């Protein structure tokens, strides 16, 4: 969260240096595929994303090692950025954390849902419904007015898809991503 605040503090200069810009990425500024998720259209847009992260922590309270958080953030940010670059070629600029947040919800809620946590199941059903609604109708105009720019609903979809693929690849949904400490996984022989 602090990283997002620092990035916003730099304002237009930070957005200009870090935003997804299709033409600049095509010219070799590949870091924008990742950094676009950490800059916002303004303080209100940032606040909405911070609230999303707060809700994520409330709904998905499993403590994770820092290396897992960093890996998740890196993979989902990069994967979403690549998807936007290759599959939404008309998108010229993008900023915001919402696509990554959608992905983090998938990674946090699905393991709980697989354990029959009905709140997690309800949240996942809502998330899937929201993604389906956005695919069919797009984002509400009121959302664009509130944040001061177009809502890129494809980022939400790709963030969720990349997170699902990450979860399958890294064992998030089976518990392999975070192995038990050696002392807890060994058995005593008497």
UniProtKB/TrEMBL annotation:
Record field: transmembrane: 43-61, 68-88, 94-111, 118-136, 156-175
GO cellular component: membrane
GO molecular function, one term: serine-type endopeptidase activity
Enzyme class: hydrolase
Protein's membrane topology: Multi-pass membrane protein
Primary location: membrane
EC number assigned by the record: 3.4.21.-
Record-annotated Peptidase S54 rhomboid domain positions: 28-170
Gene3D superfamilies: Rhomboid-like
Keyword Transmembrane attached: yes
Top-level lineage group: Bacteria
Any Pfam family hit: Rhomboid
InterPro entries: Peptidase_S54_rhomboid_dom, Rhom-like_SP_proteobac, Rhomboid-like_sf
Protein's name in the database: Rhombosortase
